[in-house]
Amino acid sequence: MNKNSIPLSYLRKGDKAIIVSLDNSALGIKLMEMGCMPGELLEVDYIAPLGDPISIRIGNYLLGLRKDEAVAIKVMKQ
Amino acid sequence: MNEPKKIKIALAGNPNCGKTSLFNALTGMRQKVGNFPGVTVDKKTGILFLNNKTEALVVDLPGTYSIYPRRIDEMVTFDVLANPDNVSHPDVIVLLADASNLKRNLLFCTQVIDMGIPTVIALNMMDVAEKNNIRIDVLKLEEELGVHIIPMNARDGKGVDKLLKLLSDEVAKPTRSFIDMQKLCGDAKELSNKIPYSNEYVAALLAVLHKELNDFPEEKHILVDEWIASKNFVAARFQGEEVLQRYNSINRVVNDCVNEEQKENKSLETTSRIDKILLHPLWGYLLFLGVFFLVFQAIFAWAQYPMDLISSGFSTAGNYLHNLLPAGMMSDLLIQGVWAGVGGVVVFIPQIMLLFGFITILEDTGYMARVSFLMDKLMRTTGLSGKSTVPLISGMACAIPAIMSTRNIESWKDRIITIMVVPFMSCSARLPVYTLLVSFAVPSQTVFGIFNMRGMWMLGLYLFGFLSAIVAAFIMKLIIKTREKSLFLMELPIYRWPRWGNVGVTMFEKAKVFVTDAGKIIVAISVMLWFLASYGPGDEIKTVEKKFEDTSFTTHYSSVDLDAMRQSEKLTHSYAGHIGHFIEPAIMPLGFDWKIGISLITAFAAREVFVGTIATIYSVGSTGDMDMKKLRDRMHSEINPQTGQQVFSFATVVSLMIFFALAMQCMSTIAVVRRETKSWKWPMIQLFYMTGVAYLASFITYQLLK
What we know:
The complex is a heterodimer of chains A (78) and B (706). Chain A is of the alpha+beta class and 78 residues long. Chain A is 15% helix and 40% strand. Chain A has helices at residues 26-33, 67-70, and strands at residues 6-7, 16-22, 41-47, 54-58, 61-65, 73-77. Chain B is α/β, with parallel strands linked by helices and 706 residues long. Strand 5 of chain A pairs antiparallel with strand 12 of chain B, so a sheet runs across the interface.
């Protein structure tokens, strides 16, 4: 796995990143099905007031996911 | 005249891509809501006359991002499309795609195309795409996808006529494939040869999910299992590689056909700006409170007016019928049993319609997803999820619509837990009971300068109900086991105006479904309760009647008093009265006597009936002309003949409050839980666990206070 990649959950509001890889799990496949493919650009649009869940902008839509779900996405910060 | 040819059309697509709008545009008011067999997923069907030779049955399939389901409703979509033996398996698929979000939509679209069923794509939300400078070369897309494509805006009906025209002709089978089945799973050919109406891709899909299918014949299960074993087929690997391959094809298609200018996406920018306020740590929660105060106000206070009208209308009509029909058992059964039961069903309609009106507006605009987003973390600490927020808050008005609204929770476990704990929330039916008991036991004095003692007690009871729900949810989270993992993962749709037609249709459908499904059970229990309270063993009731016909006895009393006394004596000699005596030893440790026991039984019709029954037993008149002060005075003077002490002691009254806060005493809730869970198991568990907890808590309360 790429050394410079970090879990999506580490990003802050407004951060942009490129997806490097996804966990090899059912959740990983689910995320890919919802458009989180390696190579896609994403932006952290909002973090819920209590710190979880987060909302990311990917493709042309907003995806809400919990931090423990976001861990399955490894990204490279732009 | 020739019988028209009948075909089945399935409507499928991603969530939030306008499927409901298109379904309404195609079928108008010729719709029906039922259930898919074996699951609690609404099955919306409608009739569509294509031309004078063809009549189509249109099924609106639950929205999904992928053919591989993650929730029960998505499994239905899989079953209908992939299982040739499913009764709803379509002849033609109308596939909806959101033009403003084409790439993600194409995953499911290409999966469906690969299944080889005749398919048309309705490319919806062209207006949103245009507004955001996304230009799609439709002709080229048609060529690359190998199916006909109709650009449309289903919300305002644009493009629907073109779709109808296309459907009137024979729809061709798709000509393209987006994955290399030879590479992915070359062995699938062998399986598809054995299963009629399947191609290699469908065969592989069946191998992944055949165990979850309804109506898949046993011999096919065996065929698939044998094939899996002989080929070492690994479902997860197939699925993962398929998605990767598919996106490779999709990227190519999107590059060729979609021209997206690198300008800002206006819809998303607007939505982000609104989110800045609606998801703000302070304004977001204040607005949330405001919105739900409004919803609560509507089902708690506004609904009261039509509900009062319905109640008085039913009792007026009942009295009228009473005068019209010859007196006797049949007339009593019809009026006090069946008619009262029907009234007890209809009375819930205003609350159900109002709640679902609000819910549909909140969903249509996109705000509901934000509610889940705001509340998820808070709710998860209690074992629930963000989506349980609406049912819980609604439960403070009435558990019936609240439980019906749990359908939005996809996770089976989260949904069951929510259903199980919602009745702990203090509903409006508890209010009259609490009012009577608090005003009886608590002096109306001011504390800390501004608070009324009685108000504080009322608030305390509401909090007690809420805390009980939270604690119960937390415990159930540990007990209920499930394979599925609760995922949040959800699209936060862009903000849009609600579709008022859709709001109206949903309100009407929910009321109809409640009346037809839960209504039967409510009427049946109502008739049973009427029988128990009106008839007694042997000729006890007759003896009472005789006593009150005896003029040497009746001359001493006024006719109003006599009527109240006769009703009281009849009730105490009825089956309900006998059951009250029978259960007295069991409820004595809670501080209740047999008269309270009768009231607990009749309160099963609805909690507020408790007040009326107590009034009847103490001969202070029935609910219609009841005098609360007279009733309280009568309760004060009631002495237990065995102990010589006051029956309604402070300990007993507090114990009663606790019992009403916790016990499952609502036949309508039972009926609606039975409908929503499709089994008697959950309502029965709920009945016994809640009433058990209530018994224990009341026992402790009474023993500590007495």
